[in-house]
Amino acid sequence: MMDIGAKREYAQNYLNKRFKNLPEKLYFVGFIIYSLVNYLRGTMFTQYLSSPLLYDFMKISSVFIVLKILLFDDWKLKDFIIFFLLGILIEFTCRISYDYDIYYYCLLVLGAKNIKFSRILKTYLVLISSALILTIVASQLGLVYNITFGRSGTPIVRYALGAVYPTDFAARVFYLMLFYAVFKKFKLNIPEYISLFALTVAMYVLTDTRLDTILMLLVIIIAIFYRPIIKFVSYISTRLMSFLIAAFVAFNILLAYFFVPSNPVFSIINKILSQRLVYGHLVFKRYNVPLLGQFIPQVGNGGLHKGPYNYFFVDSSFIRVLMMHGVWAFILTMTLIIFLSHKFISKKYIVLEIALLLVILSSVIDQHMWEISFNILFVGLFAKISDEYAVHKNDLRS
């Protein structure tokens, strides 16, 4: 009788003969299904789509990814065992926290082996930008709610444009701008600069999201000063960058943990961060830091509310992972980020390193780090990254 390895090799050869590029097709079917579901969960299309239905499609997407991993990916047996045990632990944590974003994202990270990152990036840009345009059109035609919000003490009206909340919409635009800049290697032409700046202004006027506006402006500024910035980042060692990233994340968590409302310095920082320190501090005050996760009931401003409600929502992705998924998931997240940073710097993928730093910066203030329809950078862990993202000598010349 043939052993498992021989049977697997026979199945690979048979399927490859019958279906061209089957591993890639399996991955992208799973990627597109899950990305769309993840996107739709953050829009008012949920008035038509129930949560159980969306979760069913998430499960369907995972079938394609798992098939690709089991049939075609050349991992060693010990690697399969490690990933399987890790998957059980992640699923257990997600089951406790009632948040499965990390679980499905990790499947896509693992399944990205031997898939070109450039193809994933192009698919993401086309898919999410198209979905965003359709959402805006649907909100203007009255097919989905275009929820409006006010800002306390001001006459400002904020539009969600089909998203569940204006900041979610603005964050979506920021991530699209960021990964479009990555696609262009931050080398933009004049019409692109004008378009991105106009888009940034429009987002600020329509959504009044100050922090995301700053992030969008940062993308444009980095593109303008591309050469000196990549030259500076290129000089930073992998160890120093790892330390700076860990220190920055730790500082932001400790800032929330030790927040004192009466302290004028804390008060200024909290105002700049739109009250995020208050709720970051409250979650530490109400709950212990778990090892393997816990369920934290939260009520955000997004979506429709049938009556009065008590707002309580943790925005910071890092605090959410720590408090909802536990210490081990936080360590996993930081290990992934630092490993990616090490990979990007050591292989001179400075464009991707800059994108990673902006994702970290964004994740301090928003909850979208582990949402594939926002941030796709984590798939770069195992995906094939070509030298087109590497810095060349010409790029370092002043």
From TrEMBL:
Instruction: Respond yes or no to whether keyword Electron transport is given for this record.
Output: no
Transmembrane domains' residue ranges: 25-41, 77-94, 124-147, 159-183, 190-207, 213-230, 242-260, 318-340
Tell whether Transmembrane is among the UniProt keywords.
yes
Print the keywords alphabetically: Membrane, Transmembrane, Transmembrane helix
| Protein name, entry field | Polymerase
Taxonomic source organism: Liquorilactobacillus aquaticus DSM 21051
Superkingdom field: Bacteria
